[in-house]
Amino acid sequence: MSHKKEAYALMAGTIIKNLEKRNMEGFYFETAAECVKSIISSIPDGSVISWGGSETIKEIGLMDAIHNNRYELIDRTAAKNPDEARQIYARTVLADYYLMSSNAITIDGELINIDGNGNRVACLINGPAHVIIVAGMNKIVTDVESGVARVRNMASPPNAIRLNKKIPCASTGHCNDCLAPECFCNQIVITRRSGHEGRIKVYLVGEELGY
Q1: What is the pLDDT of residues 76-103, one digit of tens each?
Q2: Which of 47, 117, 134, 157 stands 20 to 30 A from 99 (CA)?
Q3: Taking the chain, what is the end-to-end CA distance rounded to the nearest angstrom?
Q4: What does the alpha-carbon distance between residue 79 and residue 173 come to, in Å, rounded to a whole number?
Q5: Bridge-based pairing state of the strands 111-115 and 104-106
């Protein structure tokens, strides 16, 4: 194990203890492959699964892993019009498992997420029976303020470029605190505690993942 990986493991241990105080479960894996294997083994056959927009869960292979005929998948990208999108979202709220990442996580165990339409953070807050969050250790921050700054300046600009958004950060590479029509930093949600023990599970990975 490299010195960097060792430091990640030590920090993850602290975060996991703090998540427990906040009614959330935490796990640490040195590699993405180990993480995916653990997640898949924890989801019973026949479960209904949906997910929020996340480069991390695609990057680690979790999206490929759930397409295995064991689960019923609810894919919001299958909607052909706004009415279908609303119907799919209604089903998503009742899913057994919801997969996502977190834009930032504090050492003290708080989750920081910024969302455009709000469907992802809404399902984090309430709805699906279980929420599985996967995050690389590059998303760990010291406090909420630095977490919000990280999302705005490290995560939002590349996402804006990826999605071809006509917003200032797509051309400047940093947050301009915009109110542009296509702005996707509309909802800022801080999860300081889960109201339901064990509902939110945070899988930390000793790699740099996502934005």
Answers
A1: 888 899 999 999 999 999 999 999 999 9
A2: 157
A3: 24
A4: 31
A5: antiparallel
Could you give the C-alpha distances from 134 to 86, 102, 120, in angstroms and in order? 26, 7, 14
Structure tokens at 88: 């799919």
Helices and strands in the chain: count of H runs, count of E runs: 9, 10
- What is the token pair recorded at 138? 């590059």
The first and second tokens of residue 1, run together, are 């194990």
Token representation of residue 54: 């996340």
59-69 burial code (b ≥16 CB/10 A, e <16) = bbebbebbeee
Q: In angstroms, rounded to a whole number, what is the distance separating the alpha carbons of residues 10 and 198? A: 22
- pTM of this structure: 0.94
pLDDT, tens digit, for every residue of 35-44?
A: 999 999 999 9
